[in-house]
Amino acid sequence: MTVTAAQGFLACGVAAGIKESGAPDLALVVNRGPSRAAAGVFTSNRVQAAPVRWSRRVLDDGRLAAVVLNSGGANACTGPTGAGDTRLMAERAAAAVGAAPDEVAVCSTGLIGVLLPIDRVTAGIDAAAAALSPRGGEDAAVAIKTTDSVHKTAVATRSGWTVGGMAKGAGMLAPGLATMLVVLTTDADADAPLLDSALREAVRTTFDRVDSDGCMSTNDTVLLLASGASGTVPEAAEFTEAVHAVCLDLARQLVADAEGASKEIEVAVVGAASERDAVTVGRSVARNNLLKCALHGEDPNWGRVLSAIGTTDALFDPDRLDVAINGVWVCRNGAAGESRDKVDLSGREITVTVDLRSGGESAVVWTNDLTAEYVHENSAYSS
Amino acid sequence: MTVTAAQGFLACGVAAGIKESGAPDLALVVNRGPSRAAAGVFTSNRVQAAPVRWSRRVLDDGRLAAVVLNSGGANACTGPTGAGDTRLMAERAAAAVGAAPDEVAVCSTGLIGVLLPIDRVTAGIDAAAAALSPRGGEDAAVAIKTTDSVHKTAVATRSGWTVGGMAKGAGMLAPGLATMLVVLTTDADADAPLLDSALREAVRTTFDRVDSDGCMSTNDTVLLLASGASGTVPEAAEFTEAVHAVCLDLARQLVADAEGASKEIEVAVVGAASERDAVTVGRSVARNNLLKCALHGEDPNWGRVLSAIGTTDALFDPDRLDVAINGVWVCRNGAAGESRDKVDLSGREITVTVDLRSGGESAVVWTNDLTAEYVHENSAYSS
Description:
Two copies of one chain form a homodimer. By secondary structure, chain A is an alpha+beta fold. Chain A is 31% helix and 23% strand. Chain A has ten helices and 15 strands. In chain A, α2 packs parallel to α3 (118-130), α5 (192-204) crosses α6 and α7 packs across α9 (302-310). Residues 172-178 of chain A have low confidence and may be disordered. At the A-B interface, α8, α9, β13 and α10 of A face α8, α9, β13 and α10 of B.
């Protein structure tokens, strides 16, 4: 049920003809209220797609009535025409659902630098508005897929209210958000400041710690809409926890479905002097192409882990670094520890643990292995 | 003739049995003087191999009598035993060539985290010392290869003196030096301060701007030894230019021979507000896996260039960025420019030009495409 798991929301997904394949490519999510509070987090890339610029602006007042999303084209690096097309999408969706244009967020994903077939998109919005349903969440999740092999949804129900969501993302997954579009909805009666703080806290330790290929998108967007339809004002801590749980679930699904990946790698950094140090080291390890190749080949190459740690400015002593791969401490005190032969890397999930032995802070960063399939997908697919 | 192109140097390369293949794996370079001035630049990785720690220390006084180099093992992350092995190598080489141990630099390359077969190494040093020759430069260059498909040498002759050198490096090529060992020699009568300034200036715009796979090694070393045997004191500017020319030649050879690569990519950033901005943008573009895949697939995907630029803090306006691929300005003002169809990417060499339109500074960074062969080499070869 995804974005329609919470009360007060309608959604749908249709094929508007944006994708040449004829697959579903346009989704609409509508908040029927009574509240229209909303929050959003966007890519930190300075090259931002037209829909990101638009949605960031319309969220200034903490209110959204609807979100229109399309796959099949990112509408990024498309100049004034692209900006106009985003405005047209918002206006058409607003008219169709009885809202103002500046109450409608727009999300686009697909090829950068190409204009959308705007006539098809606007006709698709009309068709989507006519097909809205309180059970349309799955169709919406399917319609935002690009190279995703599966659609991604998650739901958490707490004290009388629910948080649900959908996500797309399969490549260009990196911090400052993965290449992804995420829409979360809740029927909790949460105001915009709570939505904003809960969303930022959740994103910071979930989507922002996914680093599949080090590449940051121009279109990343995470939205959270509250209808208040449950009539329950949530307790802030419980609400924040629920939003985090849904984000974490979706983030893990993004990693599991990353383009061409055969391994899901969790880089857990412990013993750090600060959380910032832990994240810095985690990202450096997660981005190391040589390590990602080694793990693909099921080689517990801890030397490449140390090389990656050494490029950071985190607090550590090179002669006191410990590294475990799948629980085997193959590196102790910056040199060989337990036998590499004890490490079993045959499974899909791999954990690399780095102990900086410099403090009590920790962080986890998720990534994938680097495979010939990744190269193939990204040299053959223009995105 | 490489390191023996300049007068006053002896060299050789032998098979010491470090590599299981039986290929040459130990080299010796000896400066017969009359001068023994020297300079060095080392990896900026904080995890540094024992030979790097040693060589950095012995170069404190700006003098070297010899360099002993081995492939087949990096002697990195090997603890106190590894440090002792490096010292043994210096002592043995010093004894064999009639120098003090602290006049001998040590360079190692190969697998991280594994101890060297030190008995074979020291026996190899004795054999190498017996085989030293004024024509041994080529053999030395061959003996330091790891996954290099060819050995790399370069020579520049100027006003009565010569600079020559050898390099190895094929993967883990990234700024703060590529994974590489480089030994340069000259018969110019240059003192240590001139050697140091010329070497730093040359490395800064050559080896430090090679970014093949974003991975920084624990062992990178560039040494410059002067014998003074030409009897000519070089003019500083001419000497700096000659060292730069040899470094640039070797750096380009490293990129040309990078593991698994099928394209040599020059990222030229112009119109930058500062050289630092130009380098930052160049590195970000050069490290973008998605772009490297696209260029491998001969897809002039300028959207991925813009995505990479957008992750930097360089001065630019996203709506005024221009990008050319092989001379075709496919992106103008942050949006589509000339037709992608005009871009011919069938050749091995590709130039990506980024015009930030924010100033008069520029920089070039060299990288490679990302290929299935890179993944294969680095998942199957433990290094």
